[in-house]
Amino acid sequence: MSASKAAVAIPERPAVMGPYKPDWIEKPSGDDMEWAYPAHAQRHDIEGKAVIRCAVGHDGRLSDCQVISETPMGEDFGVAAVALSQKFRMLPPPEGYAGKPAEVTIPVVFQVPESNWKAEATIQPKVELPATPLDSGDILLIVGLAAIAFALLALLFAAVGRPGRRG
Fold first, then answer.
1. SS in 3 state form for 42-89?
2. CA distance 140 to 154
3. What gap in Å lies between CA 31 and CA 46, rounded to an integer?
4. Pair type for strands 24-26 and 62-71
5. How many CB atoms lie within 10 A of CB 78?
6. Do β-strands 103-110 and 62-71 pair in parallel, antiparallel, or remain unpaired?
7. In 3D, which of 103, 71, 101, 67 has the Cα closest to residue 84?
């Protein structure tokens, strides 16, 4: 083996690299954001924000996510952000990264979706009754009711049409 090949041999211990600089490979879509939106907040048009801190795995997937902050409190935006963490993927730390475990802090802003989810939820199903032809009994009933109504109107006009009669 020549001396030049020995000079480029891989060291036994990886070199210490600079700080981990995360970057996105995948982010949640609008549908993902809508899926994770807290139900109560969604029904009441409440927007919010959460900040989560997660470990970045060797495949860029996030794990061990913790809620750092959320506003407004009590609307579950932190829980929603942690649920969304499965939809994030980061550039993994470089091979040989010797810093502390790679972590990312992610602010997640929830805005009321502009889709039709509310309209779709409030639309009532339309009930359509099948049209059935009238049978002879139905026709007789309608003609009979019309004859009675006509007779009552004729009596009413006859009573009103005789001026001067008092009873």
1. HHCCCCEEEEEEEEECCCCEEEEEEEEEEECCCCCHHHHHHHHHHHCE
2. 21
3. 18
4. unpaired
5. 23
6. unpaired
7. 67
Query: For residue 40, which of 4, 3, 86, 73 has the smallest C-alpha distance?
Result: 73
Sequence-distant (6+) residues with CB within 8 A of 64 are: 54, 55
Tokens encoding 66: 């913790």
Residues 6+ apart with CB under 8 A from 142: 134
Strand partners, 104: 54
- Measured between alpha carbons, how far is 52 from 39 in angstroms, rounded to an integer? 20
Q: Name the pairing type of β-strands 48-56 and 103-110.
A: antiparallel
Q: Mean pLDDT of residues grouped by 10 in the chain (167 residues)?
A: 38 48 86 91 92 89 94 95 93 73 88 61 50 73 85 83 61
In this structure, the number of other CB atoms found within 10 A of the CB of residue 65 comes to 20
Q: Global pTM?
A: 0.57
Sequence length of the chain is 167
pLDDT the model gives residue 128: 54
Task: Report the alpha-carbon distance of residue 16 to residue 1 in Å, rounded.
Answer: 28
Contact (CB, 8 A) for 110 and 48 = yes
